[in-house]
Amino acid sequence: MPERPHIAGALMQTLVVVLPIFALIFAGWIARRSGALGPHATEELNRFVVYLALPALLFDIVAGADWAEIWQPGFVAAFATGSAVVFAATVALRLSGRRHLVDATIDALNAAYANTGFIGFPLAVAVLGPAALAPTLIATILTVCVLFAVALIMVEVGLQGERPSGRMVGKVLSRLARNPLLVAPVLGAVVMASGVDLPGPVESFVDLLGKAASPCALVALGLFLAQKRPTAEPVLRATLLLGGLKLVGQPAITWLAAVQVFNLTPALAGTATLLAALPTGTGPFMVAELYNRESGVTSRVILASTVASLATLTVLLALVG
Question: Where are the transmembrane segments (predicted)?
Fold first, then answer.
């Protein structure tokens, strides 16, 4: 059985993975403050991510998945339980504070959207080895495809502002059918189910475009943070609430589900907990910018949870080995 990593070793493993994220955010911040990129750069870069890079990434993740690898019902159920409970609880909590459904949904994404893609893969492989690749892929699909899709549906419903009716359902379905963030993973699922390999040039194109999603989203976040904008509510309180749910609430619920409900092996339970404990990814920021909602809280939750995760992930790595 492997020895538990020393605290210093766990911190170094986390730093190696997390520091490039700070560097990309800082690059965007410097580019805006120095005037290298103008005031419209955030919006345009975000549109590139939403309409080109992120759909390519979602398509690539789903199309390249192996059903035999991702069919792990216990792990799926445990990780999904942690995400779903935190997401639903956050929506209910924010709605009780008279928050609009659209904004409550984005807040819930902040609390439940783990950065499995940019941090999860390198950290899990560094700590747990190649065996962690399949569970991390499952967590990524559940987060960036399933959770993301649920959130987009709720946002579209909230934007209609109508009582449930056939007309409203038709409007929502029409908008969803034109949303590249939903169409891309559906097309990827079709490719995966068909068993057909993409032609080499097409696969390379999708891979190159998809790899631009996370770096560009982080630079866009830095651009946004460099601009002073008023926020609709106290930022610190919301940041602490959503960040706490993400870094403490989600991994705690996931661990309880993995161990007490679904009886996962210690290795799988530890992997699920580690992935649930990752900081907030850039997905909520993309949604907020796409729908022109206030992004101040979202951007700060992403930044603050990433900073705080240096401590929380280090402690978790030292505990679970």
Answer: 6-27, 48-68, 74-96, 108-128, 134-155, 176-196, 208-226, 238-262, 268-288, 300-320
